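Pinned message: reference record for Peptidase S16
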Amino acid sequence: MTQAQQTMPLFPLSGHVLPGGTMRLRIFEPRYIRMVKEACNGTSCRPIGMCMLNENGDRDLNTHIHPIGTAATIIDFEQLPDGLLGITVAGQYLFRIADIQVQDDGLRVGHTDDVSAWPSQALSAADKFLAEQLVEIYNTYPELAVAYNNEQLQRADWVCLRWLELVPVSAQTKQELLQAPTADAALTFLRDLVIESKQDNEQQAAG
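Predicted structure (tokens):
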């Protein structure tokens, strides 16, 4: 393994968490209960790999997991009303899966290489509406909200990551945008998507 490569358990999901974001999860499968216990068996929690599902992939070949994932740490535990284990994870950084091994109970473990983060860039005045609508969504649906401050809302890279966690576009599209060297491609994509959605809503309201 290279210096930047590490091994971590993989948790493929239909929901997505990216660096700087958080997600609450219900854990009930034995393999993932073991994953949580082993990740947090010391004074701190080691990262787990939050991965996007590939609908066109083959589970037997492990291609049902997209290669770009998010290393996340467990920041909270709770016992849910139904008795299941609840955890909250926080996304730390992106990685690329180099190889996957399947353990006896079906838990997949990946050898991963770090992926460079987008450089920080300011959100232009013309794109401020993306931050404003993001805050509006968080206020309307607090279960989706992440902790944020005004400085983060002024960063195009941070705002784009939060939108990519939310928008119902294909995981393949998100994978392509996350592999870009900067947030510019994601910014253009999300700008057009949000404007189009707003126009559609206005037309429906007028009709």
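Pinned by admin. Summary line: The radius of gyration is 18 Å.
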